[in-house]
Amino acid sequence: MRFMTLHERKYKRRHFFVNPQLQTHYMIYISHALMICTGAAVLSMYFGIWGSVLKEFNSTRIQNDLINAARMQEYEQARNPKINPTTGTLALFREVEFLTAHQKQIWAEILSTTHHRLLLKFFILVLLIAWASIFLTHKIAGPLFRFQQSCHEIAAGNLSLRIHLRKFDEVKEVAKTFNEMADHLDHSVGRMKQILHEEKDIAILKSKMGEVLSHYKTTK
Amino acid sequence: MTRNSRFVLTMLTFVLCLWSLVAGLWSPAFAYTPTQEEKKFLLQVEQDTSKYFTRFADPKTGLVRDSSRPGSPCSIASTGFALVSWSIAKEHGWMTYKDSYLLTLRCLKTLRDKVEHKNGFFYHMVSVNTGKRVWSSEASSIDTALLLAGALYAGQVYKGTEVERIASELYRRVNWKWMTNNTLLLCHGWKPEGGFLPYYWDMYSEHLILQALAIGSPTHPISKQAWNEWNREEGEYNGKKVVNSFTGSLFTYQFSHAFIDFRNLWDRDINYFDNSQNATLTNLDFCLSNQSIYKSYSPENWGLSACLGPKGYKAYGALPGQAINDGTIAVHAAAGSIPFAPEITIKTLMSFYTLHKNNLYSPFGFKDSFNLEIDWWAQEELGVDQGITLLMIENFLSETIWKRFMKLEYIQKWIALCDLNRAVPVTRNTASTTIHPISVS
What digits encode the pLDDT tens for the residues B309-339? Predict the structure, then answer.
């Protein structure tokens, strides 16, 4: 039996719904995309395979095939009248032979048709999956990229930067929080710059700066 | 009389003389001239029958179904008859030139590019949609010959066009020698599962067209000896001698004659046109002689040929031959013999129409067959039977098919090689020595 390490225990997920609203939103998106893809796959399989089978084995078709088998046996007999006439059970065996060969042919045709149909539908499915994955990842990757760029700029000292996401982009709540953080930093650094600019007395300057900086926890 | 009046009179006399001369040359070659009513009736049957080949041709491939029954596959022989039918329909104005040409071209392109074949021999039955072999059918020598005859005829109609080029291509690619299976006779067919069928064209039947095309081939001809290899068995019935087929089915005396004009061709002392005439009369005699067994046989109801019957498709026929019969009458038996015995067959066809129109006639001409013994009526038309009906009516009325087909160099080659173009027959026995008036160039 393997026990969890202290580190693993510390970071073990206790709540799977950390942000129910955001997660529900994504669950709807992903499940919709998956349902569309799966639905397309199931329909393709159903009509690709069973469509051919149902077409070949409906009652009219079977009836026609039985008549055709009998007719072929009769044609063969009429064409080669020198051979002993096949009647009764023998004729039936010959008809069954024709039918068996015909059904083998039908199966071969079904397989061939099915392969072609499935190949086409598979191609459409691949396109559908590609579209779904691009759509979903764009909704997440787009804002993440914006966050990354913004973090770089803030690190470079541009505290005036704010994130503005597009209308249908996700993680707007996170962007709002990010902008609040940037506001706060901007305000604090701006305040410090103002104190530095206005205050001539070093003691007062230190006191005011200390007051502003007292909000921040740092490693040093 | 003024100078002008004399000129007009001279011109009128000249036109009259010219008309008499032309009319004399173009006068019907048959001893029997149909009445206006008969001609009108035949044209109506011909027109309706031609509708079979437009209605049951697949619009995408141009391949024609074996039967009007739903789900029927394409018969290659039916398609051969269709290729002739479309050009006849065009010539009568039942189809536009454009429609006829395009359908013919589509069909020939399908045959060249899509329809499965073995060494140029097409399978008897193929899918109308894809051209792939169906129902384990054989690569058939006779069906291929009938198809090619139709294709070459269409090539003659549309000379100098793509139709003629493809038709020639289809004919030239056939390896007739291969179909002999290293014998002197042509085999019935070949199957991928079992190779050559164990049957050969070894006696008189519908295979004369096959022989002609195989011997006349410019690319893979069979030896001219093949012509002498098959048996010419002569049977007799009620005093009439017939070089007979095995079954005695009337279609065996008709199919080759739909394309080849045998009237002036002599195979030693045999004239196959006369032979078919005798076979037709014998068929009628046989039916009338069997009235005690099948009461429905009569001068109005006769005709034994391979057709649908109450117990399925059978090679019905008369003596001399196997003579299977059960009272079933094939409509195309009489129709396909119109050029051989017009005075009898036209009347028979007209009585079929008058007596049984409701059960026997459809928008596509006559249905296949009927049996009055048990009040049985075929519910469908068969492509090859509609084909022989249509082609023989046209040959009787205009001889168009014969005239065009006999001009083919391949047919002329076969005639020359087999020495059939004699003015006087070589005596073999006491067979008829009638010489028919039309000479074919």
Answer: 999 999 999 999 999 999 999 999 999 999 9
ipTM score: 0.83
Q: What is the pLDDT of residues A65-82, one digit of tens each?
A: 888 888 998 898 888 766
Instruction: Read off the CATH number of the domain in which B227 is found.
Output: 1.50.10.140
- Whether B431 is covered by a domain: the verdict is no
Please tell me which of the candidates A78, A81, A98 has its beta carbon nearest to residue B136: A98
- A68 and B CB contact within 8 Å: yes
Residues of chain B neighbouring A65 (CB-CB closer than 8 A): 71
CB B399 within 8 A of CB B387: no
Buried b (16+ CB within 10 A) or exposed e, B192-230: eeeebbebbbbbbbbbbbbbbbbbbbeebbbebebbebb
- Where in the sequence is the domain holding B155, given as residue range(s)? 30-417
Domain count, chain B: 1
CA atoms within 13 A on the CB side of B356: 25
Tens-digit pLDDT profile for residues B75-128: 999 999 999 999 999 999 999 999 999 999 999 999 999 999 999 999 999 999
Query: How large is the average pLDDT for residues B353-360?
Result: 97
Q: What is the pTM of this model?
A: 0.75
Q: pLDDT tens for residues A158-195? A: 999 888 877 766 677 888 888 999 998 899 899 888 98
Please give the residue of chain B at the shortest CA–CA distance from A73.
B313
First vs last Cα of chain A: how many Å apart?
A: 42
Amino acid at B303: G
Q: State the Cα–Cα distance between residues A53 and A47, nearest whole angstrom.
A: 9
b/e sequence A104-130, b meaning 16+ C-beta within 10 Å: ebbeebbeebbeebbeebeeebeebbe
